[in-house]
Design brief:
Chain A: This is Biotin-dependent carboxyltransferase family protein. Chain A has 2 domains: 168 residues, no CATH class; 110 residues, Beta Barrel (Cyclophilin). Chain A is mainly β and 290 residues long. In chain A, strand 11 and strand 12 form a beta hairpin. Chain B has 2 domains: 70 residues, 2-Layer Sandwich (Gyrase A, domain 2), CATH 3.30.1360.40; 144 residues, Cyclophilin-like (Cyclophilin). Helices cover 23% and strands 31% of the residues of chain B. A 5-stranded mixed β-sheet of chain B has the order 7-6-13-5-14. In chain B, strands 1-2-4-3 form a 4-stranded antiparallel β-sheet, covered by helices on one side. In chain B, strand 9 and strand 10 form a beta hairpin. Classes of the chains: A mainly beta (290), B alpha+beta (229). At the A-B interface, strand 13 and strand 16 of A face strand 1, strand 3 and strand 4 of B.
Chain lengths: 290, 229
C-alpha cells in the first residue's frame, strides 16, 4: 500500500519537547547513549492502544506550552503525566486515544501530576532516523529538540483504530504519586559504601533542580572519601556517588561510561517513577537484596 | 586470567579484570568481548566496556553459568591483531588552547615542553565513552598528569585537546568539561550520519602532530582527515 504523508506542525513549544522511540542499540561501543523514553511505561501504553509497533516514535513533553496542528485526520494517544490538554481550545480527556481531524490544534497546558507526557500517533512520527533511531539528541540528530515551525510527518491512510479497543483501557496514574523506588546494590557496592549510604534508606530524599534527560541529581549529601574508579560502563538507572557526596541517578540520555563509583542500580520498572518527579519532590529508596 | 563476576539487579553481569590497565589487558578484553558477543548474540540486550570491565545487560534472565563456561574455555589467541596508527594534527596556539599557559605554570615547565611531551607519546585507544566518539586513551607522559579543574568549564569547544588526571583526550563535540585545554584539532571525531561514525577502533594508536594556526585554518576549510601511518 502506498502511504500518504500528512504533517503535524509545531506552532509553539516549551523547552525540551522531543521525539523518542525505544532508542539506539548497537552503538554503545562508539559512545552513543540509548536515548529511549524516560518513562517506558507511558510510552508503551500509547503504542499498545494505537496498535503501533512498540518502537513507533512519539513526542515526549516535559514543559507546558506545546501547541501542535495536524493537517490530516489521524489518531493520537496520551499517557504519562496528567496535563491540561485542549483540542481547538476545549478541554479533552487526560489519557488514551483521541480522534484528530484535519486542522485540529492540540495544546498542552499545566501539568497537574507528573512531569512527562507522551503523545503517540498512529504508526509513529516519520521523522529523521539516525543510527537506527528517531530519538532526538545533541550531536546525533539535526536538532536536539522540537522547535517552532517544525513539520513532523505521519502516515494519513493507516488502519483505523477500532474504538472498542479503548472501552476498558484505563491509564493508571498511581505510579505518578508513588515515592518508593526499588534499588539494587550497584556495580561498585561494598561495605564502605553501605555505611556511607545507610541514611539514604532511612531519610526522605529530594530531586534537585539538576534534572534533565541525562540525569536527576538528589539534594541530599553523603560525605565520603571514596576514590574515583577506572572509567567503567553505566546504564540508565545507575546511581553514581560524587566526591562531593551527591547522588546522580542516570536516565536515558546519560553517557555510556563514567568515573564515579556506581553505588546503586534502580529497578528497571521504577525508573518511570523517578523520571516523572519534578525538582523538589520526594522519593524514598527501598533496598533490594543482592 | 584473574577476574571476578559481579551480578547487579536482575539482569546485569559485570566482568572485572583484576589487573592494572595495560595494552595486554586491552587485547585480552577485546578478544573476550568478541567471544561474548558471538556466543550470546541473542541473549544480550546491551554490552559496554570500561578500562577494566565488560558489562552485559541481559535481555532476559542472565546466562551466568554459560558465561563462566565460555570464559573458562577462552584461550588467548597468539595471532597478533592488526592495529592502525593514526596521526592527528593539533594546533597548540594559546589562542585556541586557553589553558596551555596556566597548565604549563601548574606543571612548572614551558609551553614548548608541554607540546614536546604531548606529541612524543603513542596513545592507545581503549574504548569510546563520555560523548559519542570520545576516545579513552592511555599513554600520557606522567610529567603531564594534572588534577581536573575544581570548577568545570561550561562549554569546551569541539576539537579541543585536553588533559585531565592521567589522561588526554579530544572533545568530539562541544561539552561542559573539567579538563585543561592545551590544543585544538581540525579533525572530525564523530559523524553521526556517516556509515562509519568513527574512524578508529579500540587497540589503535593515536599520535599528535603539532601544526601552526595557519595550517589549522587551512585544514578547517576542508574536510580534515587523520593520517594513517
Amino acid at each position: 500500500m502506498i502511504k500518504d504523508l500528512g504533517n503535524a506542525k509545531i506552532l509553539s513549544t516549551g523547552p525540551q519537547s522531543l521525539i523518542r522511540d525505544l532508542g539506539r542499540f548497537g552503538y554503545f561501543s562508539i559512545g552513543v547513549p540509548v536515548s529511549g523514553p524516560l518513562d517506558h511505561k507511558a510510552f508503551q501504553w500509547n503504542n499498545h492502544l494505537l496498535r503501533n509497533d512498540p518502537n513507533d516514535s512519539q513526542i515526549e513533553i516535559n514543559q507546558p506550552g506545546l501547541k501542535i496542528q495536524f493537517d490530516s485526520d489521524t489518531w493520537i494517544s496520551l499517557a504519562g503525566a496528567k496535563c491540561d490538554v485542549k483540542v481547538n481550545g476545549s478541554g479533552t480527556k487526560y489519557f488514551g486515544p483521541i480522534k484528530i481531524k484535519a486542522g485540529d490544534i492540540l495544546s498542552f497546558g499545566n501539568f497537574e501530576l507528573g512531569s512527562l507526557i507522551y503523545m503517540g500517533i498512529s504508526e509513529g512520527f516519520q521523522t529523521e532516523k539516525v543510527l537506527g533511531s528517531r530519538s532526538q539528541l545533541q550531536c546525533i540528530t539535526s536538532s536536539s529538540s522540537l522547535n517552532k515551525g517544525d513539520l513532523l510527518p505521519f502516515f494519513t491512510n493507516s488502519t483505523p483504530v477500532p474504538s472498542n479497543r479503548f472501552a476498558k483501557a484505563k491509564w493508571d496514574t498511581e505510579y505518578l504519586e508513588k515515592t518508593e523506588i526499588r534499588v539494587y546494590p550497584g556495580f561498585d557496592w561494598n561495605h564502605e559504601i553501605e555505611k556511607i549510604l545507610d541514611p539514604a534508606f532511612k531519610e526522605r530524599l529530594h530531586i534537585s533542580k539538576l534534572k534533565n534527560t541525562m540525569a536527576a541529581q538528589l539534594e541530599e549529601v553523603f560525605p565520603n572519601d571514596i576514590s574515583p574508579i577506572a572509567t567503567a560502563p553505566v546504564f540508565p538507572g545507575s546511581i553514581q556517588l560524587t566526591p562531593s557526596g551527591k547522588l546522580i541517578c542516570l536516565l536515558s540520555d546519560a553517557q555510556v561510561t563514567g568515573g564515579y563509583p556506581r553505588v546503586l542500580q534502580i529497578h528497571e520498572e521504577d525508573i518511570s517513577i523517578l523520571a516523572q518527579k519534578k525538582p523538589g519532590q520526594e522519593v524514598r529508596f527501598e533496598k533490594l537484596g543482592v | 586470567m584473574k577476574y571476578k563476576l559481579n551480578l547487579v539487579g536482575k539482569n546485569f553481569t559485570e566482568i572485572t579484570f583484576l589487573e592494572e590497565i595495560s595494552n595486554e589487558l586491552l587485547n585480552k578484553k577485546t578478544s573476550i568481548l568478541n567471544l561474548i558477543q558471538s556466543s550470546f548474540s541473542e541473549e544480550i540486550k546491551d554490552i559496554r566496556t570500561g578500562f577494566k570491565t565488560i558489562c552485559i545487560q541481559w535481555a532476559n534472565d542472565p546466562s551466568n553459568g554459560e558465561l563462566k563456561r565460555v570464559l573458562k574455555n577462552h584461550h588467548p589467541s597468539n595471532h597478533p591483531i592488526h592495529h592502525n596508527i593514526w596521526q592527528i594534527p593539533v594546533c597548540y596556539d594559546p589562542q585556541l588552547a586557553p589553558d596551555l599557559e596556566s597548565f604549563a605554570r601548574l606543571k612548572n615547565i614551558s609551553n614548548s615542553e608541554v607540546i614536546r611531551l604531548h606529541t612524543s607519546s603513542d596513545y592507545k585507544l581503549h574504548f569510546f565513552g563520555f560523548l559519542p566518539g570520545f576516545m579513552y586513551l592511555s599513554g600520557l607522559d606522567p610529567r603531564l598528569f594534572c588534577p581536573r579543574k575544581k570548577v568545570p568549564d561550561l562549554s569546551i569547544p569541539k576539537g579541543s585537546v585536553a588533559i585531565g588526571g592521567n589522561q588526554t583526550g579530544i572533545y568530539p563535540s562541544s561539552s561542559p568539561g573539567g579538563w585543561h585545554v592545551i590544543g585544538r584539532s581540525p579533525i572530525s571525531f564523530f559523524e553521526a550520519k556517516s556509515e562509519n561514525p568513527v574512524w578508529a577502533k579500540p587497540g589503535d594508536s593515536i599520535r599528535f602532530k603539532a601544526i601552526s594556526k595557519e595550517e589549522l585554518e587551512e585544514l578547517n576549510s576542508g574536510e580534515a582527515k587523520p593520517t594513517l601511518l
